[in-house]
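Lab meeting, action items carried over

1. Structure of the two-component assembly. Owner: GW. Status: complete.
Input record:
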Amino acid sequence: MEHFENTVTSRRIHEGRIINLREDTVMTPSGRTALREIVEHKGAVAIVPVLDDGRVVMVRQFRKPAEDALLEIPAGGLEAGEDPADCARRELREECGLNAGRMEPLFSMYLAPGYSTELLHVFLAEELTPTETHLDEDENVEVETLDLPLLLQMIDDGGIRDAKTIAGLLALYRRQK
Amino acid sequence: MEHFENTVTSRRIHEGRIINLREDTVMTPSGRTALREIVEHKGAVAIVPVLDDGRVVMVRQFRKPAEDALLEIPAGGLEAGEDPADCARRELREECGLNAGRMEPLFSMYLAPGYSTELLHVFLAEELTPTETHLDEDENVEVETLDLPLLLQMIDDGGIRDAKTIAGLLALYRRQK
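Predicted assembly:
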């Protein structure tokens, strides 16, 4: 099967702060035209920060689209031209006040490949030491440090409801088996 | 800390086929105003379908935002008022031609809670039996059936790059430990 969808026309709808939106008309492999709504995003990183005692450093933050404060692993958007590992170190400093002696890539994943270009790079951070925090002025982030068994229980009971967090914590579980 | 962000004003930008887009001005907990770009999505389901021999039924599909065909677990959008478990059964029939004797919820997760309302419900499907497939006319989906150890290796080497798929497969791995 030929998978590719060629773009026939592309219409710009929104140029924003975090995302842009365009609508592409494409030719499908079966020769039909179809509309694809595409959110453009610069990409992001997330970090699974593990302390020497095995606890995981998490952040709780209000998320307007969810209308709730979610417990998540630390994360943030890539700046133009920024290396993902450098971004991961920067976000871990800014959100959690931690420097990482080791920053190892786990995987990269599209969060919503049906409509968003966002590719998220997930890292495991170890050998953590305290530093200063420098939060963005409109971020309101609380740091919480929890055991992995409790975090896995929270995935099961709905206390954790964020995709990158569930993927990252389950990857940590797998590494520790 | 008070987490809630009250909406001050809301501007509609796009009403689309899969997503809408609005921009909210919010009052942050620290008393500042901030802009929040919000993609509205009706929600979706994804299924980890496990055959009696342990192999997992996957789909490969071109994703325009990624400009590539991605290997994913089966998934699809909720219709208005549809029960997520019913939707999971429907999508598994339509995409893979399988009926599920057991359909068990694993977790629900926001895919991109920084800017999207999409909540994805992930199910484990077992006791699978063949039925007819009924694909949407502009879907071009190839079914591939693979062992979990190979799929886990593909997460590690970048052959799988989809968030719901990585979370779902790692959850299956954890259940089988």
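2. GW to write a short summary for the group page. Key points so far: The domain at 44-176 of chain A is CATH 3.90.79.10 (Nucleoside Triphosphate Pyrophosphohydrolase). DSSP finds three helices and ten strands in chain A.
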